Amino acid sequence: MTQEFPMALQVALIAASCVIIVLAAVLIPVLLRLKDQLERTVTAVERLEAELTPLAREARVAVDRLGDLSGRVEHVVGVVSGLFLPPARVFNRTARLLQTGATTFLHALWNGRQVRG
């Protein structure tokens, strides 16, 4: 008592089996290539990380040194400003007073005005 499957079902099962075999034959090499590419990518990223980590440390050190240098420059500018700006202001004020006096003297000399005291 053997039971036979209908012809359509047999064809469908054979077709499904062929599709599974073809899919396996195609997908296995594709997945292996993908795995190899992924391993190469991971290796490249690890190398990049190994190179960038010291560069990042050096950049941090450089930024810290620039910050220290900036602080020193601000201090020096503050000291220089404190040393040179007050005398420069006094000189500027004196020069303006001399200019005003000389201008007044020359106007008086030119116009013949006499200053009464």
Describe, in plain words, how this protein is organized in 3D.
The protein is an all-alpha fold. It is 90% helix and 0% strand. It has 1 helix and no strands. It has one helix spanning 7-111. The termini are far apart.
Summary keywords:
117 residues; mainly alpha; 0% strand; rod-shaped
| Uncertain stretches | none
- What share of the residues lie within helices? over 70%
Inertia-based shape: rod-shaped
Q: What's the gyration radius in Å?
A: 46 Å
Straight-line N-to-C gap: 150 Å
Total helical segments: 1
Task: Annotate the secondary structure layout.
Layout: H1 7-111
Summarize the structure.
The protein has 117 residues and is an all-alpha fold.
